[in-house]
Write a structure and sequence with these properties.
The chain is mainly α. It is built from seven helices and no strands.
Amino acid sequence: MKAASHLRSATAPAARVIDALGVRDLLELVEDVCRVRGVPLHDLCGRARSRSVAWARQEAWWRVHRHPERHYSLVEIARLFGRDHTTVRAGIDAHQRRLGVACGDRAAVRAGP
């Protein structure tokens, strides 16, 4: 019985994130990151901390932040994913570093290619 309640509590936050992404028409964007990175959606939206999941999550935050139709603030992204906005900022910066983009040049990153 304890194992089932532990499993339920671990998946509930991920389910809430997935629902919120769907409401905001962001689920397809995040699913695309999951497909490319080979990471399960529930892991990306949950609390998993493996490198592959963390990097995929950071890419998803970066892509949501750069959304072409709507600006999502760090606070909005943090609330959406159940994180602190400073965690989201650090994740976006880390993803930008992996892309080779200077973190100080956020306007150029937002503008895209």
